Amino acid sequence: MLEQTQLLVDKGEMLPLMEEFYTIQGEGFHKGTAAYFIRIGGCDVGCHWCDVKESWNAALHPPTRTEAIVKNAAAYSNTVVVTGGEPLTWDMGPLTAQLKAKGLQVHIETSGAYSLTGAWDWICLSPKKVKLPTEEIYKVANELKVIVYNNDDLRFAEEQAAKVNSECILYLQPEWSKREKVIPVIVDYVMKHPKWKVSLQTHKYLNIP
Ligand SMILES: C[S@@+](CC[C@H](N)C(=O)[O-])C[C@H]1O[C@@H](n2cnc3c(N)ncnc32)[C@H](O)[C@@H]1O
Ligand SMILES: Nc1nc2[nH]cc(C(=O)O)c2c(=O)[nH]1
Ligand code: SF4
Ligand SMILES: [Mg+2]
């Protein structure tokens, strides 16, 4: 990468953009809401069941000026979801400042594994055992969305729920490839522990991005 480009990436003024698309938020509290998704490349958390492994290698995704990303987003939607990859790999300050200056609602999907940057209207924290969230994000997360692949993930979910703020909404979401097996487990668990809600990847049922 050119030295100049690297400097801009380091400052969060350019970001490795994998894709951007206008769709319906499929998961969590805002499911069903039209939103413009910005998918930033780069993640070294390494979830074995990750459904966007193509995002992991940042070098495969072109460094893109935040101004260009913002211009596209503002043309489509009032709500923007920044995801990845792991967006907090990068400094989210410049991107989110510009999105908010356009009056947009700015949401993030994050594992919380790196320090929290950016200004957010909604933080979806989806913690991962392999790289735990930083302490700071538990205080500000609006929703906790734990992916359930096996029974131990319910133990992990309770451990994480004990760390979030009291306003945080709690979701259990089936890991997609295990959904037939874990949906009954989640349904049973939520009925017994109603502080939790079910989240499904509804976009996959709707066949939309
Ligand atoms: C691809 S991740 C990108 C954002 C960030 N790296 C994170 O993990 O939160 C977006 C959301 O999809 C969830 N996810 C990824 N793979 C999944 C799968 N196979 N089944 C269910 N949810 C999955 C993640 O836990 C996260 O909530
Ligand atoms: N429709 C739709 N909703 C989503 N919610 C979170 C997603 C993500 O990959 O971060 C996602 C996604 O990829 N598509
Ligand atoms: S943290 Fe997110 S993007 Fe990274 S591997 Fe896990 S699910 Fe995939
Ligand atoms: Mg997705």
TrEMBL record:
**Keywords recorded for this protein, A-Z:** 4Fe-4S, Iron, Iron-sulfur, Lyase, Magnesium, Metal-binding, Queuosine biosynthesis, S-adenosyl-L-methionine
Q: Does the keyword Lyase apply?
A: yes
The residues listed in the UniProt record as binding substrate, with positions renumbered to this chain, are: 24-26, 39, 83, 209
Q: Which reaction does it catalyse?
A: 6-carboxy-5,6,7,8-tetrahydropterin + H(+) = 7-carboxy-7-carbaguanine + NH4(+)
The molecular function terms of the Gene Ontology recorded here are: 4 iron, 4 sulfur cluster binding; carbon-nitrogen lyase activity; magnesium ion binding; S-adenosyl-L-methionine binding
Q: Which domain of life is it from?
A: Bacteria
A single Pfam family it belongs to is: Radical_SAM
- Annotated pathway: Purine metabolism; 7-cyano-7-deazaguanine biosynthesis
UniProt: S-adenosyl-L-methionine binding residues? 49-51, 85, 126-128
Matching entries from InterPro entries are given as:
7-CO-7-deazaguanine_synth-like, Aldolase_TIM, rSAM, rSAM_sf
Question: What does this protein need as cofactor?
Answer: S-adenosyl-L-methionine; [4Fe-4S] cluster; Mg(2+)
Q: Where are the transmembrane segments?
A: none
Subunit notes for this chain?
Homodimer.
Question: Which PANTHER family does this UniProt record tie to the protein?
Answer: 7-CARBOXY-7-DEAZAGUANINE SYNTHASE
Question: Which family does the record assign?
Answer: Belongs to the radical SAM superfamily. 7-carboxy-7-deazaguanine synthase family.
- Described function: Catalyzes the complex heterocyclic radical-mediated conversion of 6-carboxy-5,6,7,8-tetrahydropterin (CPH4) to 7-carboxy-7-deazaguanine (CDG), a step common to the biosynthetic pathways of all 7-deazapurine-containing compounds.
Q: What is this protein called?
A: 7-carboxy-7-deazaguanine synthase
What is the organism of origin for this protein? Constantimarinum furrinae
Q: Which gene underlies this protein?
A: queE
